[in-house]
Automatic annotation (TrEMBL):
Gene that this sequence comes from: trpF
EC annotation from Swiss-Prot or TrEMBL: 5.3.1.24
Lineage of source species: Bacteria, Pseudomonadati, Pseudomonadota, Alphaproteobacteria, Sphingomonadales
The protein's name: N-(5'-phosphoribosyl)anthranilate isomerase
Domain of life (superkingdom): Bacteria
Chain ranges of the N-(5'phosphoribosyl) anthranilate isomerase (PRAI) domain: 6-209
Organism: Sphingobium lignivorans
Catalytic activity as recorded in UniProt: N-(5-phospho-beta-D-ribosyl)anthranilate = 1-(2-carboxyphenylamino)-1-deoxy-D-ribulose 5-phosphate
């Protein structure tokens, strides 16, 4: 049985949550970013969140959020984790973590080896780094685009805080990614969808199955 934690990100429907639960996901991610096909407003989150069992972490994915939207999402979603996916500096991450008392993750966009080092500045500010593929300049979204980075960059990298791997993962490549990186947590969105924002239950099952075999 795999010890690797699984986050299914960008869920918008009860059946996607149920599929993630059947697959043994440890985290489900709710995206709040109006330009995203996965965007959920607080009211929609409030409808969906109770579907997630208590032992599974509800993660809000946010881009440079202000305190008001953080508070609205926490009130709506009974959140366990805030995933900051914008340009939040360490001081802002630390302030959000301190103010909310929630586990706080910082996404680190990666294209080259130099990008990995940017994560080190978040030691003491964040609870976890999420190494994700850097999306192209001018892209509509800072994540959730199915891009991957060179996973060999992570071989031998020892981040100073817990971490996870994200970006372009799917059922066919996740075992390879885990062999190369040894990631303790994997995060997927597009790779378990049939179209942007549309989760595919069979792909969720296949992804979780592939991770569980590792
Ligand atoms: O998924 C989105 O639409 C999104 C929008 C704005 C900021 C972050 C977003 N997603 C972040 C995630 O956690 C994704 O799971 C991660 O980037 C991996 O996505 P994918 O490559 O599609 O698996």
């Amino acid at each position: 049985m795999s010890q690797v934690a699984i986050k299914i990100c960008g869920v918008r429907t009860p059946d996607a949550i149920d599929a993630a639960m059947r697959g043994g996901a440890s985290h489900v991610g709710f995206v709040h970013f109006p330009r995203s096909p996965r965007h959920l407003a607080p009211a929609a989150l409030a409808d969906l969140a109770p579907r997630v069992p208590e032992h599974v972490a509800r993660v809000a994915v946010l881009v440079d959020p202000d305190d008001a939207i953080i508070d609205a999402l926490i009130a709506a979603g009974g959140l366990h984790v805030l995933q900051l996916h914008g340009r939040e500096e360490p001081a802002r991450v630390a302030a959000i973590r301190q103010r909310t008392g929630l586990e706080t993750w910082k996404a680190i966009p990666v294209k080259s080896a130099a990008d990995l080092a940017a994560g080190n500045a978040y030691a003491g500010a964040a609870d976890r780094l999420l190494f994700d593929a850097k999306t192209p300049e001018g892209a509509a979204l800072p994540g959730g685009m199915g891009h991957r980075f060179d996973w060999t960059l992570l071989a031998g990298h020892r981040p100073p805080l817990p971490w996870g791997l994200s970006g372009g993962l799917d059922a066919d490549n996740v075992a390879h990614a885990l062999r190369l990186t040894g990631a303790p947590l994997v995060d997927v969105s597009s790779g378990v969808e049939s179209a942007p924002g549309i989760k595919d239950m069979d792909r969720i099952a296949a992804f979780c199955e592939a991770v569980s075999r590792c």
